[in-house]
Automatic annotation (TrEMBL):
It comes from Cohnella abietis. GO terms for molecular function: phosphorelay response regulator activity; transcription cis-regulatory region binding. The modification 4-aspartylphosphate is found at residue 54. It is found in: Cytoplasm. One of its GO terms (cellular component) is cytosol. Residues 130-229 form the OmpR/PhoB-type domain. The keyword Repeat does not apply. Its main location: cytoplasm. The lineage of its organism: Bacteria, Bacillati, Bacillota, Bacilli, Bacillales. Gene3D superfamilies: 3.40.50.2300, 6.10.250.690, Winged helix-like DNA-binding domain superfamily/Winged helix DNA-binding domain. This is DNA-binding response regulator.
Length: 232
């Protein structure tokens, strides 16, 4: 069995057991919890490599637990929810989740989502250090804040650079335009949320070989934007 550790937090026993069997069939080591309290006890013992969190729990919710995990680690978090409303999903993604699965789910989809998140996270960890981030032909110098494409430095405005650094430091996490506006512009902001989409467009023109089909900063329709950190 792989040493990769997946934590499943789900209060419904049948679904928890189905998820456990699904994940173990991939060769991963699994721990399970049926409540926030049990999940906290597991986290105190060991931080997993990935967490599957149900949103509705008897003593709290998965979004709050996701925020607690985010305060300890940057591991991938996948929400498992029966809520199909966009607002709930956006709240979960903005709370730090990397992805979500809606019940009833296909176990093959669950396996694929887990593999994708683990692969992306491993590549991100391998491709960056305390001095910089590297992905494909993109290099970001965290010390001097220089950004290079194919070894050539590109000129970015202060806000473009801040926006890129924020997204790149949260790989594969989705952020709404309003949250990005608040984080980057804050009280200094004088425009609307449209400011974010304009800056995203400028960044794509400078970073992407084909801005209409971006491989770095991608739009998640109906939710916001994410920096896609993959080896592909």
């Amino acid at each position: 069995m792989s040493d990769t550790h997946i934590m499943i937090v789900e209060d419904e026993r049948d679904i928890r057991e189905l998820l456990r069997l699904c994940v173990e069939s991939c060769g991963y080591r699994v721990t399970t919890a049926g409540s926030v309290r049990e999940a906290r006890a597991l986290l105190d013992q060991e931080i997993p490599n990935l967490a599957l969190l149900d949103i509705n729990l008897p003593d709290g919710d998965g979004m709050g637990l996701c925020a607690e995990i985010r305060s300890r680690s940057d591991i991938p978090v996948i929400l498992v929810t029966c809520r199909k409303e966009g607002g709930d999903i956006v709240a979960g993604l903005e709370g730090g989740a990397n992805d979500y699965i809606v019940k009833p789910f296909d176990v093959e989809v669950v396996k694929a989502r887990i593999r994708t998140q683990l692969r992306s996270y491993a590549y991100w960890k391998q491709s960056n250090d305390k001095n910089g981030l590297r992905n494909h032909d993109l290099e970001i110098d965290l010390q001097g804040c220089d950004v290079k494409i194919g070894g050539k430095t590109i000129g970015l405005s202060a806000k473009e650079r801040q926006l890129l650094l924020f997204l790149a430091n949260h790989p594969n996490q989705v952020f709404s335009a309003s949250l990005l506006y608040d984080r980057i512009w804050g009280l200094d902001g004088t425009g609307e949320e449209n400011t974010v989409s304009v800056h995203i467009r400028y960044l794509r023109k400078k970073l992407e070989s084909n801005p209409s089909e971006p491989k770095y900063i991608q739009t998640v329709r109906g939710f916001g934007y994410k920096f896609c950190w993959t080896e592909d």
